[in-house]
Amino acid sequence: MKRRRRRKFLVALILSAILAVNAVAFMQAWSMTHFVAGGERTQPPEKLSVQGKLWVLLTGVNIPRPVNWRSPADFGLAYQTGHVRDNGVDLEVWSIPADGSPRGLVLMYHAYVSSKSSLLAAARQFHELGYSVEMVDFRGSGGSSGNSTTLGFREAEDVRATADDARQNRLAAHEPLILFGQSMGAAAVLRAVGDLGVSPDAIIIESPYDRLLATVGDRCHTMRLPAFPLAELLVFWGGVQQGYWAFRLNPAASAVHVHCPVLMFHGQLDIRVTPEQAKAVFDNLAGPKQLEWYEQAGHCSFLSTDSARWREAVAEFLARCTPSPIAER
Predict the structure, then answer these.
(1) Which of 124, 142, 172, 288 is deepest in the core (most CB within 10 A)?
(2) E-assigned strands of the chain?
């Protein structure tokens, strides 16, 4: 009798633990993918104290909805604000025309928990190289509709919608289309091209992760938590909440179907996406490709780390893979 009670107690204890872990994972996944109206953003895991990490583990992160805190005018760039609507989503776009005849069009896509204003320094570089630029707020960010993110999955549909709109309404037949993406934006670009049939002339990506599961696991490591099974649970519940199978979000697999030229930047000090994970993406790219390693850079900090090197790499890459030669102005 005592043995039976003991077994029942152990079973109840195990079930309670499983339920508790899943409840924490559900809450964490929700807080990481749903933006709130205000308040201070939770600090990155590596900056939190032990007590702070415990509090975040129990309560979830606080992520205010990303806003645009600057505009192209702050960088001396003339622009217009437009909107692309696709399947009930309203995407805000800043259009920056080239001075004179454009050498092509660069569509720009931002990182997780960010907005298009974070790309203004890079946008100015492309503009100085003679390109028209369109900067896109993903769903849930900046001037676009929504209050959540799918970490690159449905954002790939935003890439497709804005690329299709640009080709149909503004891009001349002879002008090349270049897609630029940072981190989550890079993952969305790879999925859009590799899985959704978008056909740019070239891609420039910075710090793409290889699999959603892997990058969530890296976040667990920065919190000093076991990646297994927490990363699996976070990915599972995040996908359930957003209505898609999140384990399918695999930029390295998408890269197999990317045949256009690709320039990729990655930092050796990146703790969000390890160099090994970045190499997995690069190795799978099917077309002409170039990888620029930045030994002293972390996650998406290449232009600020060495602007001259970044500009030179971009200009030389575009000169090789687009019809119009790049000439310094």
Answers:
(1) 142
(2) 80-86, 89-96, 105-109, 132-136, 177-182, 202-206, 262-267, 289-294
pTM reported for the whole predicted model = 0.93
| 258 and 296 both lie in a single domain | yes
Number of domains in the chain: 2
Could you tell me the two tokens for 166? 């640009």
Instruction: State how beta strands 202-206 and 262-267 pair.
Output: parallel
Taken in order 176, 283, 295, 210, the sign of the CA dihedral is positive
Q: For residue 98, what are its two tokens?
A: 């080239």
CA atoms of 139 and 147, how far apart (whole Å) = 7
**Could you give the CA distance from residue 252 to residue 254 in angstroms, rounded to a whole number?**
5
Distance separating alpha carbons of residues 36 and 40, to the nearest angstrom: 10
Phi then psi for residue 269, to 5 deg, are -100, 15
Instruction: Please state which of the ranges 42-56, 191-205, 211-225, 277-291 shows the lowest mean pLDDT.
Output: 42-56
Per DSSP, the residues of 191-246 read HHHHTT----SEEEEES--S-HHHHHHHHHHHTT--HHHHHHHHHHHHHHHHTS-G
Q: Of the given ranges (13-17, 40-44, 92-96, 251-255), which has the lowest mean pLDDT?
A: 40-44
Are 149 and 138 in contact by the 8 Å Cβ rule? The answer is: yes
In a domain, 328, yes or no: no
Q: Please give the residue range of the domain that contains residue 45.
A: 1-64+215-248
Residue 326 lies in a domain: no
In this predicted structure, the answer to whether residue 238 has a pLDDT above a threshold of 90 is yes
Token pair for 100: 């004179």
pLDDT tens digits, 263-282? 999 999 998 899 999 999 99
